User: Which sequence fits this backbone?
């Protein structure tokens, strides 16, 4: 595989050289791989922490399934089975005939809600047993930027954060994650990431999503965070040059700090084979107590207990748009977000009883 080029989130690239995008309906064509470009700009469209776990009742009622759901109690009475079968066949027909929609970023809301989240949910609920705190700090509407720490050798923390918002936010919000271009040059992974609503981690795409009132997630540590050795766990790496703060200031979107505990231990990285990383075009090649020594079995993550806590939002709408170019302000806000995440990480680490309980 060709070397992947990582595009920094705060890279100020020209917007004028990109071609026109289009809204696609039910396309079966794979998105291009290779060099990834951000999507074109077509104009902007438009309390107290209460822990929530997967066992908590949902304020918005039962979540629909690909089969159309049964009655509100989940039973099969009153034709519930027939409705689920009919709903499943209808879903399959739409997929086969192309009678469904994806947006300009490739996000497929129906497939995400009814299939992809259903695949991720058992890992979230049963394997990592994620506990969510402070989800009410995420705004119920409008654009907002969630900034989280990044760790774990493989980016499972981003996916678990996405499930946490999807399943626990009372306003049924969906998190649109910003990812490195390496994600979009990997076969299969590229398509799945687009379907889940992920897009390139660059200012242009982030601003466009925020301008459309979307909830956007970013992990500014990037590969420095996810690929750090086990001995540096829960010590935040540098948050780039403040590109995420600049983007939030331009759109007047609040910044919601997010701290994730538990991901650091799923693949304890005790070494890094730089030679293999160069050959494969990866930013690092992890060596753990089980991988690659145990083969495919070594790629199974350890079943650690996770906690995801969303902090109080930091408003940015009180600043003028030109404040996005003020380096002092960007540094201060970046440092404020980083310190809040780090402080919460330490607090959660003190509170947890065990890595696995």
Assistant:
């Amino acid at each position: 595989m060709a070397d992947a080029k990582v595009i920094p989130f705060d890279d100020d690239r020209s917007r004028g050289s990109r071609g026109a995008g289009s809204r696609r309906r039910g396309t079966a064509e794979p998105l291009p791989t290779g060099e990834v470009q951000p999507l074109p700009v077509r104009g902007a469209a438009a309390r107290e922490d209460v822990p929530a776990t997967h066992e908590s009742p949902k304020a918005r009622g039962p979540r629909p399934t690909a089969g159309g759901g049964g009655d509100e109690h989940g039973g099969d009475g009153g034709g519930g089975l027939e409705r689920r079968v009919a709903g499943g066949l209808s879903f399959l027909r739409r997929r086969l005939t192309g009678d469904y929609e994806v947006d300009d970023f490739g996000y497929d809301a129906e497939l995400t809600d009814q299939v992809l989240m259903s695949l991720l949910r058992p890992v979230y609920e049963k394997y990592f047993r994620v506990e969510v705190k402070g989800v009410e700090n995420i705004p119920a509407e409008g654009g907002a930027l969630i900034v989280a720490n990044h760790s774990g050798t493989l980016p499972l923390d981003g996916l678990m954060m996405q499930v946490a918002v999807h399943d626990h936010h009372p306003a049924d919000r969906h998190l649109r994650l910003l990812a490195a271009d390496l994600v979009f040059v990997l076969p299969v992974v590229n398509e799945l990431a687009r379907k889940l609503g992920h897009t390139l981690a660059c200012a242009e795409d982030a601003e466009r999503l925020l301008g459309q009132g979307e909830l956007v997630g970013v992990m500014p540590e990037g590969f420095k965070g996810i690929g750090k050795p086990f001995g540096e766990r829960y010590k935040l790496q540098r948050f780039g040059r403040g590109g995420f703060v600049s983007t939030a200031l331009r759109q007047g979107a609040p910044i919601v700090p997010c701290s994730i505990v538990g991901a650091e231990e799923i693949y304890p990285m005790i070494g890094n084979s730089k030679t293999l990383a160069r050959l494969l075009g990866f930013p690092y090649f992890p060596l753990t107590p089980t991988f690659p020594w145990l083969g495919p079995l070594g790629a199974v993550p350890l079943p650690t207990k996770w906690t995801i806590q969303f902090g109080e939002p930091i408003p940015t709408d009180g600043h003028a748009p030109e404040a996005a170019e003020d380096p002092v302000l960007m540094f201060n806000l970046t440092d404020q977000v980083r310190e809040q995440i780090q402080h919460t990480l330490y607090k959660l680490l003190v509170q947890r009883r065990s890595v696995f309980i």
Remarks:
- Strands lie at 52-53, 131-133, 144-148, 175-179, 199-200, 215-218, 255-261, 271-272, 286-287, 307-310.
- The CA atoms of residues 183 and 190 lie 6 Å apart.
- The radius of gyration is 21 Å.
